[in-house]
Write a structure and sequence with these properties.
Low-confidence stretches: none
Radius of gyration: 21 Å
Pfam families: HNH_2 (PF13391)
Protein name: HNH nuclease domain-containing protein
Organism: Kozakia baliensis
Largest sheet: 7 strands, antiparallel
Keywords: Plasmid
Number of helices: 9
Helix content: 25-40%
Number of domains: 2
Length: about 260
């Protein structure tokens, strides 16, 4: 949270290029306890309504108020002396929210295409060269981290496929958000077939602590999931309590509640 006003909380995030969004709250004074607003609680900038595809999103289809005015939304003020204006939208569930944020440019940083960027931007790599290279290799799904997952899982943790060339060493909690210890921790990793790794990496699927698969059926509809062999009956072959905090983190990060 970056702004706290009487009738609106403002939020921004680097993954959205620090764009501001506002959440309406109901109270008379700043000192009062804020209450949730049920009708069109989220307010986005007018420019969001101009993004190609906005009208096809669920928030865009639910008759947003494109002329919502509230002086608490100072970042949305159009000009000197003008009222602050944004687009107020209804958000049915976390999947609708994720769809909106993706439209606005949000991408989770745990993506294989960003491995070199993550490594270049890391400021906490070990000073000792051997350890440093091990941690870097882990971001690339190689080295000690990959070997430890090969040893732990033997095959794809879900399908049982043992063809090594088809398997990927995937961090559960993103590498960039982990300590150097957890970047190498085998309990912070899954050995997955490439299609499952891609879906897990993008937050289209996750796993409960009992190992059962969770599928974001809005972003990955059941019929589309079935085409690539992802079904609701899938599960991790075994889960240790040591996996739980990392799985908890993944579910929170990708909106599985």
């Amino acid at each position: 949270m970056t702004k706290k006003k009487t009738h609106a909380f403002g939020f921004s995030h680097s993954a959205l290029r620090n764009q501001r969004v506002y959440l309406k709250v109901d109270r008379k004074r700043l000192a009062d306890e804020p209450k949730p607003v049920k009708k069109q609680p989220l307010v986005v900038h007018l420019d969001v309504g101009q993004i190609l595809g906005f009208d096809e999103t669920r928030v865009g289809k639910s008759e947003p108020n494109r002329e919502y005015k509230n002086d608490n939304m100072s970042a949305f003020r159009i000009g000197a002396g003008s009222k602050a204006m944004g687009i107020a939208v209804n958000v049915e569930d976390v999947y609708a929210l994720k769809e909106l944020l993706v439209l606005m440019g949000w991408r989770h940083p745990q993506n294989q295409n960003n491995a070199e960027q993550d490594i270049a931007e890391a400021t906490d790599l070990p000073e000792q060269e051997t350890e440093r290279q091990a941690v870097i290799a882990a971001r690339r799904g190689q080295g000690m981290f990959r070997a430890s997952l090969d040893e732990h899982w033997k095959c794809c943790a879900v399908t049982g496929c043992a063809t090594r060339a088809l398997l990927r060493a995937s961090h559960i909690q993103p590498w960039r958000d982990s300590s150097n210890i957890n970047r190498l921790n085998p309990y912070n990793g899954l050995l997955l077939a490439a299609h499952l790794d891609a879906a897990f990496d993008q937050g289209l699927i996750s796993f409960a602590n009992d190992g059962s698969i969770l599928i974001d059926e809005y972003r990955l509809p059941r019929e589309q999931a079935a085409l690539i062999g992802i079904t609701s009956g899938m599960r991790l072959s075994h889960v240790s309590p040591a996996h739980h905090p990392f799985l908890d983190n993944h579910r929170r990060l990708h909106g599985f509640v």
